[in-house]
Specification:
This protein has 2 domains: about 10-105, no CATH class; about 115-195, no CATH class. Residues about 115-135 and about 215-220 have low confidence and may be disordered. It has 8 helices and 2 strands, in the order H-E-E-H-H-H-H-H-H-H. It has a two-stranded antiparallel ribbon with strand order 1-2. The chain has helices at about 10-15, 45-50, 60-70, 100-110, 140-160, 165-180, 190-195, 200-205; strands at about 25-30, 30-35. By secondary structure, it is mainly alpha-helical. Strand 1 and strand 2 (about 30-35) form a beta hairpin.
Length: about 220
Amino acid sequence: MEQGSLDLDTPVDTYRPEFAEVKVLAGFDGDTPRLRAPASRATVRHLITHTSGLAYWFWNEDIAQYEKVVGLPNVVPGRLDAFKAPMVAEPGTRFVYGINTSWLGRVVEAVTGKGLRRTAILQPPSPRSSRRPGSWNESSEEQRIRNLFERVETIEEVAVTLPQGDDRRTRLLALSRDALAEEATVRPVIAAKILGLSEKTVRAWADGGLLATTQRYPPTLP
């Protein structure tokens, strides 16, 4: 953040220009959605706090109806069309639980220049992968995490070449998710190296709610 790579109060469309095309759903005329431009630009902070106006289809009937009548997929299948879903409120006016974290992932990709799968710091901690105090080695853990990302990205590169609904695609994507779920959150010092950022920036992003990092550090490195 101190490098100027990300500012929480900067509009989302500064990092992802396509966000400027997201409208506000004002209602329906029969089955025809009524869309209008938002009165203000949503910021990264709005995404973090779920106040951008974006909504999930399973929480908001209007979004569910919109996706149905226009044939828009939700975010589950992983299609980019899902990011065309409109807002249901003006940015900054109220809390709406929605696809904000999905947009945050795209912001992270734009800022770091790396695929989201390389930010495993977004994954929740797994008790099965916790390390014993004093057993941590920085260089070996960095290499292990890099190897994990390479395997996951290879799997997903194959998966996305298969058509939607193909069982092989589903199994491959599930395999990549399971591989990441087995891994603990990444320490800030490792995340900084992998993302090409300073450790201070990674910690600042975590403090701002953009990333979730583990604070487990051994007393001394072996």
